[in-house]
């Protein structure tokens, strides 16, 4: 069993100077506790207690080629002497934009930002500018960042969330602008009829329908067959801009993202995380007629000191080059993930632990529940979140790091040896969990 005493001591020390001890509230939920790491390489994290953990968080998604990937860090290191943020254009921006255009079906024009949250913000502003409508529709349980306008109903308490078919918008942070709830219309995900009814009722005031094309922030939930196609048709009929938030799914579910995998083309898309293997870069991509509103005569403003900076752009070009150079890598990744999922299911069965393992080879979830599948946020809310987090804590003590909410991110650096070692740890963690019942 690993211990994390030095991490615990450093967390206490941190709290004296870093508010709350971390720089992102997401990290409070880490299992078994917020840890401190010395370094990260490939599929591994090395912590301050001298432990090596197999990492299935990989930064919450970015390190898709593995941590400190030489294919990315080499070109980035070579670029550093040329400067970082120059408040000017460079050839790299054109190269990266051309690459994304070639790979992503919805990308007629692109813009670069730094984080997923702000790229979502930009996409919704573009949709409002394009349609002249005031509101947007999002789905309960989906996360589009922590900014005031979209940090709504990502994990609402069921006492506040209203009826399943017509959920109430719920603010997620103290201090958030209260009027944010007036702009957001919430719908349950994976429910065509509920979406159709909402758009019929309120479509004329809705600028954008925004969705994670596969839900990855509450469980990992595939769209039901035909659901995204129906969403596409309904959004078009209602005159709403359809935005796919591919911050997690982009370049992970395939080189063409979820939109390529499911064959549904949104009007705008947002990418981040895997696109630059851990360097901060996000992308707004979409239809020319909408995207070109950022030109001065279009009067939609999108700015940022670090947008298109040399370092992150170099990282993204290198990442997409590496992914494009080895198309078989996606198949291997899916196989590793499928083997992991099957092994975890078998282990849970052996230990008599009701555990749902659902998702894709490249990203899946383990949720403590008797349910055979989850289809939307309310399904996930009905699972035993505390036990799911306990399982993640037990895994960490056996050298495997996953998210406390039960989501596992794979990287291209996870191989058969890591899968075998992980399954051995899963077996021990489930035995520990059984003893805690
Ligand atoms: N959208 C989705 C789907 C995400 O998963 C996230 C981050 N987890 C964001 C947006 C926000 O991205 P960032 O943390 O880079 O602001």
**What is the CATH C-level name of the largest domain?**
Alpha Beta
* Helical run tally: 14
Strand order of the largest sheet: 4-10-9-8-7-5-6
Q: What is the 3D form?
A: globular
CATH fold title of the largest domain: Aspartate Aminotransferase, domain 2
Note the beta-strand portion: 5-15%
Number of strands: 14
Query: Which architecture of the largest domain would the CATH scheme give at its second level?
Result: 3-Layer(aba) Sandwich
| C-alpha Rg (nearest Å) | 21 Å
- Catalogue the unreliable spans: none
Tell me the distance between the termini: 19 Å
| Total domain modules | 2
Global mean pLDDT:
97
Secondary-structure-based class equals alpha/beta
Regarding quaternary structure, how should these chains be classified? single chain
List the bound ligands.
4'-deoxy-4'-aminopyridoxal-5'-phosphate
Helical content stands at: 25-40%
Largest sheet: 7 strands, mixed
Secondary-structure element string = HEEEHHEHEHEHEHEHEEHHHEEHHEEH
Q: Looking at this structure, what is the CATH superfamily of the largest domain?
A: Type I PLP-dependent aspartate aminotransferase-like (Major domain)
């Amino acid at each position: 069993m690993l211990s994390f005493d030095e991490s615990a001591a450093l967390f206490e020390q941190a709290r004296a100077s870093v508010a709350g001890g971390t720089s992102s509230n997401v990290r409070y939920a880490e299992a078994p506790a917020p840890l401190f790491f010395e370094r990260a390489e490939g599929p591994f994290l090395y912590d301050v207690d001298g432990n090596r953990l197999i990492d299935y968080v990989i930064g919450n998604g970015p390190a898709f080629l593995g941590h400190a990937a030489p294919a990315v860090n080499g070109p980035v290191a070579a670029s550093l002497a040329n400067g970082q943020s120059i408040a000017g254009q460079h050839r790299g921006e054109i190269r990266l934009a051309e690459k994304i255009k070639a790979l992503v079906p919805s990308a007629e024009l692109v813009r670069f930002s730094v984080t997923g949250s702000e790229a979502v913000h930009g996409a919704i502003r573009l949709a409002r500018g394009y349609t002249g409508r005031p509101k947007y529709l999002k789905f309960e349980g989906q996360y589009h960042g922590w900014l005031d306008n979209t940090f709504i109903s990502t994990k609402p308490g069921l006492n506040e969330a209203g009826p399943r078919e017509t959920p109430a918008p719920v603010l997620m942070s103290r201090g958030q602008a209260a009027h944010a709830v007036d702009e957001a219309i919430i719908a349950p995900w994976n429910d065509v009829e509920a979406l159709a009814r909402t758009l019929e009722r309120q479509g004329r005031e809705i600028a954008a329908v925004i969705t994670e094309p596969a839900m990855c922030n509450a469980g990992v939930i595939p769209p039901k067959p035909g659901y995204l196609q129906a969403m596409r048709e309904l959004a078009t009929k209602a005159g709403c801009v359809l935005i796919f938030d591919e911050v997690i799914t982009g370049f992970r579910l395939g080189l063409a993202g979820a939109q390529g995998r499911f064959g549904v083309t949104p009007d705008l898309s947002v990418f981040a995380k895997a696109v630059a293997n851990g360097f901060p870069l996000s992308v707004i991509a979409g239809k020319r007629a909408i995207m070109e509103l950022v030109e001065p005569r279009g009067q939609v403003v999108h700015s940022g000191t670090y947008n298109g900076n040399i370092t992150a752009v170099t990282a993204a070009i290198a990442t997409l080059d590496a992914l494009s150079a080895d198309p078989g890598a996606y198949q291997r990744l899916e196989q590793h993930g499928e083997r992991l999922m099957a092994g975890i299911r078998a282990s849970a069965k052996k230990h008599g632990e009701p555990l749902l393992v659902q998702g894709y080879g490249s990203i899946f979830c383990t949720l403590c529940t008797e349910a055979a599948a989850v289809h939307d946020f309310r399904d996930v809310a009905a699972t035993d979140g505390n036990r799911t987090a306990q399982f993640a804590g037990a895994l960490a003590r056996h050298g495997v790091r996953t998210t406390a909410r039960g989501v596992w991110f794979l990287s291209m650096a996870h191989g058969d040896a890591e899968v075998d070692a992980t399954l051995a740890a899963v077996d021990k963690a489930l035995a520990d969990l059984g003893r805690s019942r």
